[in-house]
UniProtKB/TrEMBL annotation:
<dbReference type="InterPro" id="IPR020835">
    <property type="entry name" value="Catalase_sf"/>
</dbReference>
<feature type="binding site">
    <location>
        <position position="163"/>
    </location>
    <ligand>
        <name>heme</name>
    </ligand>
</feature>
<feature type="binding site">
    <location>
        <position position="371"/>
    </location>
    <ligand>
        <name>heme</name>
    </ligand>
</feature>
<dbReference type="InterPro" id="IPR024708">
    <property type="entry name" value="Catalase_AS"/>
</dbReference>
<feature type="binding site">
    <location>
        <position position="74"/>
    </location>
    <ligand>
        <name>heme</name>
    </ligand>
</feature>
<keyword id="KW-0479">Metal-binding</keyword>
<keyword id="KW-0349">Heme</keyword>
<feature type="cross-link" description="3'-histidyl-3-tyrosine (His-Tyr)">
    <location>
        <begin position="341"/>
        <end position="364"/>
    </location>
</feature>
<dbReference type="InterPro" id="IPR011614">
    <property type="entry name" value="Catalase_core"/>
</dbReference>
<dbReference type="GO" id="GO:0020037">
    <property type="term" value="F:heme binding"/>
</dbReference>
<dbReference type="GO" id="GO:0006979">
    <property type="term" value="P:response to oxidative stress"/>
</dbReference>
<dbReference type="GO" id="GO:0005829">
    <property type="term" value="C:cytosol"/>
</dbReference>
<feature type="active site">
    <location>
        <position position="150"/>
    </location>
</feature>
<dbReference type="GO" id="GO:0046872">
    <property type="term" value="F:metal ion binding"/>
</dbReference>
<keyword id="KW-0575">Peroxidase</keyword>
<dbReference type="InterPro" id="IPR043156">
    <property type="entry name" value="Catalase_clade2_helical"/>
</dbReference>
<dbReference type="InterPro" id="IPR018028">
    <property type="entry name" value="Catalase"/>
</dbReference>
Amino acid sequence: MQEKKPKKTTNEKVEQLGQYYTVDEGKDLTTNQGLKMTNDEFSLKAGERGPTLMEDFHFREKMTHFDHERIPERVVHARGYGVHGEFQVYESLERYTRAKFLTDPTKKTPVFVRFSTVAGSRGSADVPRDVRGFAVKFYTEEGNYDLVGNNIPVFFIQDAIKFPDLVHALKPEPHNEIPQAATAHDTFWDFIANNQESAHMIMWAMSDRSIPRSYRMMEGFGVHTFRLVNAAGEAFFVKFHWKPLLGVHSVCWDEAQKINGKDPDFHRRDLYEAVENGDYPEWELGLQIIPEADEFKFDFDILDPTKIWPEEDIPVQRVGKMTLNRNVENVFAETEQVAFHPGHVVPGIDFTNDPLLQGRLFSYTDTQLIRLGGPNFHELPINRPVCPFHNNQRDGYGRQTINVGRVSYSKNSLANNTPRPVPAEDGGYEHYQEKVEGRKVRARSESFADHFTQAAMFWNSMSDVEKEHMINAFSFELGKCETESVRIQVLEMISNISHELAKPVAENLGLPVPSQKPLLTDKASSALSQMNTVKKPDTRKIAVLAADGFSKELSLWLQTLKSKGTMPEIVSDHHGKIVGEDGTELEVKHTLLTADSVLFDAVLIASKEGRSVTFAKEAPDFITEAFLHYKPIGALAEGNILLESLVNIKGAGVVQNNIDAYIEAVTEARFWDRNGKP
């Protein structure tokens, strides 16, 4: 055996590799021009709560470099899937805004929605523990409006200058490109521990919200505080919500890990099949609105992107419905080439001084320039407005418009000074005239300083089951960290949120329990717990375990289940068709070798295990796993023989020979009070 050579130090590696290699550890922070910087935390603003200034060369250099770091796939949100649809407002919102698509209840506005994960590459799996993107492009008669959000209403950071740092930390570690599409590693948690503005977001990320059952069953949020402006020039602060009509549902963590192996396309397949089947996903648009006079009324800063507006304090008004009803024809040409930007607005929608939003207004266009090869990405079919557009922009990579005429400047006489600006009263966009004053500073408003109270409120709002899931999530993620000091730092951070959370996580990690901190708040919000969501049987997928010789009752059950909106699919020991005792034939959708319980919402047993060797070998494990994931289990006819042979499969949600009770169980979806855990 060869003797192992001692590992080279980082500096020794750099010396050997040459001048283009460098080590940053222990060095002073500089710009790419070598200028030493006094601050890397805050962008330059006009006053602590004022807008970000364009002269902030450090922010622009840092963000520009970050925006151009990857080609051709997106740096973040690379793994995505899109679908077309329409939006219609219920009644005019002209009291709040002049945006025509929000003031004309007779108009259906075309939309394109792209759902995505954040951390993984384009080829990663669909169900990691991750934030989900929820971006909507409205093709309005006044131009395109992009509502670019997530399925979580808050974000990790408060200032856009920190975004490159966040993404560098959550992406695979650069020395070995591991792990893919996962945050369970040292650099991510080191960032969290040392940037504690992330405390609220990480609670959401460790909750069931980050492993949704389906794109169709998750909420969407605009995250930032925007402005609505009406025709009279009155402004209102607003947060945008998408409320799924199927409710908000998730998978178990054990399921998520298995789904990623069994079907890495689980979410995109689910969305595609739902639209193809005519089970069109629907969301209601919700608005939380605060009059300008109430800006400082609350115990949090309404411009802080790490804070929610509790729905009990500022109710969500449901104002319209979005229906997704057409799949894309070409994933690359549509889903991959679609270009969103929060700065794509229409008259009646404006921005605030949220420092994260301010940075995004710069970053998105800059990103599209490198990703789509030039300034004409707006001319790609998926990005083109449905209304005409005219300006003096010409040439550039990918130009498709052939402009006729000699004039491409303003002002001019040769074209009678056209294209001409449009007054606000005729539909021209006019920025809200907010008064801004303050010294140029790199600072953050003190009103952004509380990082833990809303995180504690989120914890207080969880059911016991959801709290258990979060404890397990923190224990899993931190258990994957190799550096003990990172684990200890995170434990200290979450001890500020809840001792009830920090104590069991510390015990699971074999580390000292942090000292108990004073209780920050006893406030809770029922809107935050998924236990309070809408529950429907619609589109719930049922694995029907059946073999040749099945009872004639099965056909009646299948008919009833379909009439209630569920999706029963035959899982058998062979493909093709199975024949019942009365000669009825049923098409087999899956076999016990190609299907898995984690891909279904419920199980219905319609045959006994003695029907075949494969059935006897595979069906018991299929049923047991579904039971351990707290799913409904039903049995009819001879399927009861198989169910009763599995002596531990009993209790809540296990139904025999009662179709109505079984449908109720499928509607409930999970039965958390069962004994036994996956």
